[in-house]
Write a structure and sequence with these properties.
Number of helices: 11
Largest sheet: 7 strands, mixed
Distance between the termini: 41 Å
Helix content: 25-40%
Number of strands: 25
Length: about 525
């Protein structure tokens, strides 16, 4: 198979144009091209009057050809197959238990189920069909279910997001391909195989979760929803049991694939295994018209359906030494209430697959470090988050409405009195408040500097009526559960995994970490007969 890179075509090209360009690049007849598979597709919008699609394709030919050495855009590649084998010789006495059904837990469970381990997956929240109802109730009338919300339930926090599948880690061509293929089998659009910035959307992702759950059950796995691990038991520094509110489970292997908001579980684990503080980021959600973002990124081609809704990603180093950056940008989406604890306000962003709503939104966040916390406790980052979530709850009326402010007023430290041309999308709702009362001073200073800097990249980004909604605190885990080279914690048999444990950030990297942990278990144990 040949891989050809840097094939550039105008936006309004056809499949025939792509085939012709491949033949021209290789200086061959189109007739000897047997098959074409797109490996990667991205947009080059640096020149607004000449936007291009850039392809990397894998092709098969009906006959061999010689590739000139000077042609560095063409290489020979082998078809990739994700195939891992069980090499462990010790029989696992009990079924492996996975705590958490986010991407890390699901993909760890899927691989173990495929290999015959029949995992038990414990999830404190509800299955996605019921979870949707609880979240809609919270958004509609402000009644929070602390066990079933955006943070807790089948699929984890990513279920109610943009469903991005891009990742910064270098593992996409290996385990990442396995993740994408499983998503496609479960109902994701096939384009996620090759898009440079693939996304699924919250609407499609919900159905995918149901299909992955059914697949794991077909393979012998078990799901236990609305059940929480309360304690762990060990002997000679080895895991022996898990205690839930419903049961006592004999367990030699437990994968803690918990989310970044499982604060009570972190507190429990802190009594037994080694945790450490970790840097993260806090800030606000910012909203602009999606049409403004499209025009800034695509110019006159802004409404071309082949380009879709435009996104952005910025970072700025502030004068105070901190970094401010955009995170989880949601084109054509909405800002959502994402609280999981009583008396706290948390924001998040979400898009449907079509990304066709009026506003673009993004987290705009500033790095915070352990030095900013009030103590040396491994759990100090949680208290840091909680402090500002509760302040946001208080200044917005103590009813899960969120504090909001126009950027111009935030920059001038005055209360907003009316909206401009942009209206907020946060549910349950917003009230005008001074966001400086629920964020540290250094975060506020950094946000103002960063937003003005980003206005140099997108005209109007720092417009006075851009809406800021607070607070965005759950960007990543505030702790890390220490694990060794075998992915085990200080108590053997406990495998910290995924985003909550501090080893991932986003759907793809969490799912990949789940596969890594499953592979490590397969190297040590074989399933019980």
């Amino acid at each position: 198979m040949l891989r050809i890179q840097q094939i550039k075509l105008p936006v309004d090209h056809s499949e025939k144009d792509l085939k012709a360009k491949i033949a021209s690049t290789l200086k061959i007849s189109e007739d000897i091209i047997k098959s074409i598979e797109i490996f990667r597709k991205s947009i080059d919008a640096r020149k607004k009057d000449k936007i291009l699609f850039i392809y990397t394709v894998d092709i098969e030919l009906n006959e061999e050809i010689k590739i000139p050495k000077k042609n560095t855009s063409v290489t020979v590649v082998e078809p990739f197959l994700y195939n891992v084998e069980i090499t462990g010789e010790t029989e696992l006495k009990n079924k492996p238990v996975i705590v958490g059904s986010g991407p890390a837990g699901l993909f760890c469970g899927l691989l173990l189920a495929e290999k015959g381990y029949k995992p038990i997956i414990i999830e404190r929240g509800k299955m996605v069909e019921e979870r949707v109802k609880d979240i809609e109730k919270f958004w509609s009338v402000g009644i929070l279910n602390e066990r079933s919300n955006i943070q807790f339930g089948e699929g984890g926090a990513g279920t109610f997001s943009d469903g991005k599948l891009n990742t910064l880690i270098k593992d996409r061509s290996k385990r990442g391909k396995k993740v994408l293929e499983e998503f496609i089998k479960a109902g994701a659009p096939s384009e996620i195989r090759y898009l440079n910035k693939p996304h699924i959307g919250t609407d499609i992702l919900r159905n995918i979760l149901v299909n992955i759950r059914k697949r794991i059950i077909e393979l012998g796995g078990t799901f236990r929803f609305e059940e929480r691990v309360l304690d762990i038991c060990s002997k000679d520094n080895k895991l022996t049991r898990l205690i839930t509110q419903n049961d006592i489970l004999d367990a030699n292997v437990a994968i803690f694939a918990i989310g970044h908001s499982a604060r009570d579980t972190f507190e429990m684990l802190n009594e037994s295994v080694t945790l450490e503080q970790k840097a993260f980021a806090i800030g606000v959600r910012i909203e602009h018209p999606q049409s403004m973002i499209d025009e800034a990124q695509y110019g006159e081609m802004a409404n071309n359906p082949k380009l879709g809704s435009a996104d952005y990603k910025f970072v700025h180093k502030c004068k105070n030494g901190r970094s401010v950056y955009t995170f989880c940008m949601c084109p054509g989406g909405m800002v959502t209430g994402a609280a999981s604890e009583a008396e706290g306000v948390v924001t998040n962003g979400m898009s449907y697959h079509d990304r066709d709503l009026e506003n673009a939104n993004s987290a705009l966040i500033v790095t915070v470090n352990p030095e900013d916390f009030d103590s040396d406790s491994p759990l100090a980052g949680i208290e840091f988050q909680r402090k500002y979530e509760r302040l946001a709850y208080k200044i917005a009326g103590s009813n899960y409405n969120a504090p909001a402010q126009l950027f111009g007023d935030f920059a001038n430290n005055v209360l907003s009195k009316s909206f401009g041309k942009i209206y907020p999308t946060y549910r349950p709702g917003v009230v005008f408040a001074n966001l400086r009362e629920c964020l540290p001073n250094y975060v506020c200073e950094s946000l103002v500097e960063g937003i003005n800097a980003f206005g140099n990249y997108i005209e109007g980004y720092n417009r006075k009526d851009a809406i800021l909604t607070g607070v965005e605190t759950r960007t990543s885990s505030p702790i890390r559960i220490i694990r060794d080279e075998n992915f085990e914690s200080s108590i053997k048999g406990i495998y910290p995994c995924g985003e909550g444990a501090g080893y991932a950030g986003g759907i793809m990297s969490a799912a990949i970490d789940g596969l890594k942990v499953a592979e490590s278990i397969m190297k040590k144990y074989k399933p019980a007969k």
